[in-house]
Write a structure and sequence with these properties.
With about 450 residues, this protein is mainly α. It has one domain (about 5-260, about 300-440). The chain is about 70% helix and about 5% strand. The protein has helices spanning about 5-20, 20-40, 45-80, 80-115, 120-150, 170-175, 175-205, 210-245, 250-255, 285-290, 300-310, 320-345, 355-365, 365-380, 405-435, 440, and strands at about 155-160, 165, 260-265, 265-270, 280, 295, 385-390, 395. The strands form four sheets. A two-stranded antiparallel ribbon has the order 1-2. Strands 3-6 form a two-stranded antiparallel ribbon. A two-stranded antiparallel ribbon has the order 4-5. The protein is globular and about 70 Å long.
């Protein structure tokens, strides 16, 4: 592998690992706020106990997410300085604001929430976790705006002397059409990931003689989150696909391995390759791309000729097998997770106890939406190749000058070692919290009959 391939691999490893914790932080913060609101409204002590449990899961996940995010930014500066030099004026505000939200707003108010159980009034204490939940959404929206610029560059102008891009409107950058479509889709996927984790924890512990009722409630909350997230992911994904078809038609063509421009293009559920066995749904790709069964979808060959005429000689075809299979595996993993959650809800209706086989399946459930999220990002980024900012600059133009394969490989191994340690720490802490009795998880929190010590 040359330095470009190694650098791309490094970025993929670092980003995918970091993103394992991002959707969990988003969904767990909102769930913690929701459970606390439910406790304050109903006085049901189960919601207080679950609030503390989910909140502690959030703290562990948030901490690991911050560390992996720092590694990602370090890696970006190490390996992609040329891209940062040319587009730093555009990316700078989004990264700065996202950093302030994560390190100041979210971290500060999360600490206030954790240490303020017996020191703040109930309304003020609730407000702290609501601020965290809102902060994670704002942080995600702003950082997605930066990624959306790479998918569809907007709100910039190029300096005729230096060639650097200058931001012309922060508002237009945030309201990029791709960002407005990607944000709800990403948030829906985050709900699935968080729901699957809570379903796994709740199903595992619902047989406890002491806390079984509370964990049964947690499992059903997680199941409903997974189902709702799956449904919203499908709806928002359909809209995002149509937007991507408009701004990056090559990506949609690669998703189907469609080489020839086709009217009423089918969608392959499974294929062994060109000329091989294939299971197709007639006209489905045209519906996914344009919302019409009779729409014409541009093929890879015609798009390659068009891009060569527009941008100059070279290959503009991404890794088609990667795009083809990640797109399908993403959809399949999401559908399986949603189907399992529906099955769990059905088997546990009216307080029925699930079978042991269903509980064992629930323990593996978080792998599915996490995989779907990762596969979605692999598709999004690899199917944009060879562009780092579509239509402006290629990936090869963005890496740091003078970077060697040895330097990239050494830093990749170092990052992998750090991430391996973090993975073990996170898994052990989550397992530790999930195994503890709820009465010890929420030690120090006021009961429903105990007012907070301080009232403002």
């Amino acid at each position: 592998m040359d330095v470009l391939d190694l650098t791309r691999l490094q970025f993929a490893v670092v980003t995918i690992y970091h993103y394992l914790f991002v959707p969990l932080s988003i969904s767990l913060s909102a769930t913690t706020a929701g459970l606390q609101i439910a406790w304050l409204r109903t006085g049901d002590d189960r919601y207080r106990q679950l609030t503390m449990l989910v909140g502690k899961l959030l703290i562990v996940t948030f901490a690991v997410g911050v560390v992996t995010g720092l590694v990602q930014e370090f890696q970006f500066g190490l390996a992609w300085s040329e891209f940062a030099r040319f587009y730093g004026d555009v990316f700078g505000p989004t990264l700065a604001i996202e950093g302030m939200l994560a390190f100041f707003l979210e971290a500060t108010f999360l600490a206030l929430w954790y240490f303020g159980w017996d020191r703040l009034s109930r309304r003020v204490h609730l407000a702290t976790i609501v601020v965290v939940a809102v902060g994670t959404l704002l942080s995600a929206f702003i950082i997605l705006a930066a990624n959306s610029f790479m998918q569809r560059p907007v709100a910039y102008e190029l300096d005729p002397v230096t060639g650097r891009a200058h931001l012309t409107s922060f508002r237009e950058l945030l309201l990029n059409e791709v960002n407005l479509a990607a944000f709800p889709h990403t948030m829906a996927g985050a709900v699935m990931v968080g729901g699957a984790l809570l379903l796994a924890v709740g199903a595992w512990r619902r047989f406890d003689t002491r806390d079984g009722a509370a964990f049964a409630t947690l499992a059903r909350i997680g199941a409903w989150m997974t189902v709702a997230g799956g449904a919203l992911t499908a709806v928002t994904g359909d809209h995002l696909g149509k937007v991507i078809t408009q701004v990056q038609p090559m990506k949609m063509a690669a998703a189907e391995a469609l080489y020839s421009t086709t009217t009423g293009a089918p969608f392959s559920l499974f294929s062994t390759g060109a000329g091989g066995f294939s299971i197709e749904v007639p006209r489905l790709l045209s519906i996914l791309a344009y919302g019409s069964p009779d729409a014409t979808v541009a093929g890879i060959d015609d798009l390659q000729a068009q891009y060569s005429a527009t941008y100059g000689p070279g290959s503009y075809i991404p890794m088609v097998p990667v795009a083809f299979w990640t797109f399908r595996l993403m959809i399949g993993a999401g559908m399986l997770a949603t189907g399992f959650a529906l099955l769990y809800l059905w088997r546990t209706r009216r307080d029925r106890r699930p079978g042991r086989w269903l509980v064992r399946g629930a323990l593996l459930l978080p792998l599915l939406p996490s995989a779907a999220n990762s596969l979605g990002w692999i598709f999004t980024e690899t199917a944009r190749q060879p562009w780092i900012a579509f239509g402006l600059s290629k990936v090869a133009d963005g890496i740091s000058p003078g970077l060697t394969s040895g330097e990239v490989l050494a830093s990749l191994l170092a990052f992998a070692a750090v991430y391996g340690v973090l993975a073990v720490v996170w898994l052990r802490l989550v397992r530790h919290l999930a195994r503890k009795p709820l009465s010890t998880v929420d030690a120090g929190a006021p009961t429903s009959a105990e007012p907070a010590a301080v009232s403002y």
